[in-house]
Amino acid sequence: MSFDEPIITFDNVWKKYSKSGIFHRSLREDVMRIFSLKQDNLKLAGNEFWALKNISFQIFKGQTLGLYGPNGAGKSTILKLMSDITYPNKGSISVQESVAPLIAMGAGFHFDLSGRENIYVNGAILKMKIKEINKKMESIIKFSGIEEFIDMPVKNYSSGMHLRLAFSIAIHSEASIYLFDEIIGSGGDEEFRKKCFDKIFELKEKKKTIVLVSHDMEVLKNFSNRILFLNKGEITSEEVL
Amino acid sequence: MIKLFYKFLKYYKDYRDLYFILIWKQFSVRYKQAILGVVWAVIQPLSLMGIFTLVFSRIMPVKISTLPQPIFFYSGLLPWAFFSSSVNYSIPSLVSNYDLIRKIYFPREILPIAGIAIAFIDFMIAAVIFIILLFLYHIPITWCALYFLPLVALLLLFTISFCLILTVVNVYYRDVQLAINFLLQLWFFATPIFYPIGMIPAKYKFFIYLNPLCFIIDSIRKSVIGGAPISPYAFLFMFCYAIILFVISFNFFRIAERKFADVL
C-alpha cells in the first residue's frame, strides 16, 4: 500500500439509532417491511435520531486522529463503525487494515475465572491465537503489574486491577489500527496512566494508526496529528496540529 | 464449490481458536462449583428413563415395544436431551452476551454454536452410557449400528439450523425465551420418545416427517438396537431437507447479524 492512500475512509456516513430503550415495533410493520422492496433509509421514524449526519473524513497510515466532543456527539459510534460492530444506514466506510478495538477492553471477562484464564478468553476475542497468547502471557501479566493476583478469580479484583489486566491484554493484540475510547484518565493510578501513555507513544513510533477519543483536550493535543470536533453527530471543526 | 471450500477453510483457520476458547470457558464455568460435575450430563436422560420404565412397567403396565423398556426409552431420550439442551443453551446466548456484541466484531454465530457444542459434549458422554446399556441388555451389535454416525450428523445439522433461527428471533422478540420451555414440552410429546412411531395414525404421518427428530429416533431404534438397515431414500430425503434448512437458517443469521449491535 502506498503511503498516501487513506487507511480509513468515511464517505458521507449517516447512522441512526432508536431512542426507545428496548426494541419495539409491531409484527405487522415487520411483515410489511419484508414486502416493501425500497427502503427509505434517510427517513426517521418517530423515535429515531441521527447519531451521525453526513460524516466524511480520511485517516492516513501512521496518523493519530483525535475525536473531541460532548457526550452523545457520536464519537463512540464512529469507533463502532470502524470496527465493524455496526453498519451505516447510508454512505460507505472502508477500513484497509486490521483493527484492534481497544473499546473492547475486558470483553468476555468471566468473573468466576481467574485472571490467567480470562487472558485466554479476552485474548481470543481480540483475535489472538492460543499459541500467540501462550507466548505473550508473561508479558501481559508483567505489563498489568498484578502478578500476585493473576490466579485469583476476577470477581475479587479491584476496579483498578480489572482495568490494568484488560488494558494489558488489549495492548498486546497485533493490528495496524488502534482505537482508544476514553480509557486514559478513567480509573488507574498515576503510575499506570503513565505506562499507558508510554505505550501509545510506542505505537506511534511504530507507525501505527491510532484513533483516540477523549474529553481531555490536553491528552488529545499531546498525541494527535489532527483533531475532529464533533457535536450532535456532525463535524463542527477540525484542527491540524 | 471450490471457492466455498476455501472460504470455509479460511473461516476455520481464523476462528478455530476462538471457538475452542469459548467452549472451554463455558464448560469450565459451568462445572466450577458443581460437585457432580459432568455427571449432570447423564442425569437427565437416565432419570427420565427410570421414571418412564417405572410408569410403564409398574404403575400403568403397557407393552410398548419388543425391546427392553429402558433401552427403548433411553434411545429416544438421548437425542432428545441433546436437542433440548442445545436449544436451552443457544437461545439466550446472544442476549446474554450483548456486552460482547456491542464491543467487538466476531462472527456472531460462534455464540449459539458454542452452546450447541457444550450440549454435544454432554451428548457424547450420554452416548457412552447408551453403549453400556446395549451390552447390559445383551443387544446384539451388528454393522447396522454404524448408521448411528450419519444419524448424529443429521441431528447436528437440524439442531444447528433450528437454534440459529430461534436465537435470531429471540434478539428481536424475547418472547421466544419465555415460550421455549413450553414449546419444548409440546415438542417432547409430539416426538416418539416414549411411544413407537408405529403407534401414530397414518393421517398424521406427514407431520412426522416435518419433525426430523421422529426420523432420527426411529432410525436409531431400527438400526442400532434392531440391527436393520435404513432405507437410503428416506435418508437421502432427510439429508436434503437438513441441508436446505441449514443454508436458509445460516443466511438468515448472516443477514440479521448486522443489526445485532443496534438492537441488543
Description:
The complex is a heterodimer of chains A (241) and B (264). By secondary structure, chain A is an alpha/beta fold. Chain A has seven helices and nine strands, in the order βαββαββαααβαβαββ. In chain A, the strands form two sheets. Chain A has a six-stranded mixed β-sheet, with helices on both faces. Chain A has a three-stranded antiparallel β-sheet with strand order 2-1-4. In chain A, α3 packs across α4, α3 packs across α5 and α4 (130-144) packs across α5 (159-171). The longest helix of chain A is centred in the last third of the chain and has 16 residues, at 190-205. Chain A is globular and about 55 Å long. The model of chain A has no long low-confidence stretch (mean pLDDT 82). Chain B has 264 residues and is an all-alpha fold. Chain B has one domain (35-263). Helix content of chain B is 75%, strand content 0%. Chain B has twelve helices and no strands. The radius of gyration of chain B is 19 Å and the shape is globular. The model of chain B has no long low-confidence stretch (mean pLDDT 89). Chain A binds chain B through residues 17-18, 23, 80, 83-87, 101, 103-104, 107-108, 110, 112-113, 117, 120-121, 123-130, and chain B through 14, 17-18, 20-22, 24-25, 28-29, 32-33, 97, 99-106, 172, 258, 261-263.
Question: What can be said about this structure in brief?
Answer:
The complex is a heterodimer of chains A (241) and B (264). Chain A is an alpha/beta fold and 241 residues long.
Task: Set out the fold topology.
The complex is a heterodimer of chains A (241) and B (264).
Chain A: E1 6-18, H1 27-35, E2 48-60, E3 64-68, H2 75-82, E4 90-95, E5 99-101, H3 115-125, H4 130-144, H5 159-171, E6 177-181, H6 190-205, E7 209-213, H7 217-223, E8 226-231, E9 234-240
Chain B: H1 2-30, H2 40-59, H3 69-90, H4 93-96, H5 98-103, H6 110-136, H7 148-172, H8 175-189, H9 205-210, H10 212-225, H11 232-257, H12 260-263
Helix pairs in contact in B: 1-6, 2-3, 2-6, 3-6, 3-7, 3-8, 3-10, 7-10, 7-11
